[in-house]
Design brief:
The chain has a domain of about 100 residues. Helix content is about 75%, strand content about 0%. It has six helices and no strands. The chain starts with a helix and ends in a 12-residue tail after the last helix. The relative contact order is 0.13.
């Protein structure tokens, strides 16, 4: 009986680990795609005019900095966790720079795209997301493993709900 309970507990842990990783991948993919696809408004492409400065979207770098600050404030990162945190944030910043460069390249290309070109462009975005996720997962995993149980619970809630700050659902089992 105890052996069955241990097997069941291990299976649940592995399942949760996979679910959390996949959730992270999906959240990051959605996050990154919003910046790339934000400039796909056809009315601007058709008119051949650029968006005014007031209509410009927040850059991926600015958004990433805000996310980093919120996570840092929410997780209360310790001095021992700081090197792993710094590795993670460096990759996040590099990924954001890459997304901004891709977005800028797309905005500067004033030629209208046909359906095939759109598909190729979205394929390029998807490949970029995959590359960035593959770069992000190892430092995130190392950082996550360094977290206390309370920090892990908070991180899990943030990734599940997108809410920062005080969490009432920290230990529902």
């Amino acid at each position: 009986m105890i052996l069955n309970q241990l097997k069941e507990t291990n299976m649940k842990k592995r399942t949760c680990s996979v679910v959390y990783r996949m959730t992270f991948v999906l959240v990051m993919a959605a996050f990154l795609s919003t910046f790339i696809l934000a400039n796909a408004n056809t009315s601007f492409a058709a008119s051949g005019t650029k968006k005014s400065q007031s209509m410009a979207k927040t850059s991926a770098a600015e958004y990433t900095e805000a996310q980093i600050k919120q996570l840092q404030d929410t997780l209360n990162i310790t001095a021992g966790q700081a090197p792993l945190w710094n590795n993670l944030t460096q990759v996040m910043r590099e990924n954001a720079k890459d997304m901004d460069a891709m977005r800028k390249e797309r905005v500067e290309n004033t030629e209208p795209m046909n359906a095939v070109e759109h598909m190729k462009f979205h394929s390029q975005i998807t490949q970029s997301h995959l590359t960035q996720m593959n770069k992000l997962i190892p430092p995130f995993e190392a950082f996550y493993e360094s977290l206390s149980d309370q920090q892990k619970n908070i991180t899990n809630i943030v990734f599940r709900t997108g809410k920062y700050g005080k969490h009432k659902r920290q230990n529902k089992k």
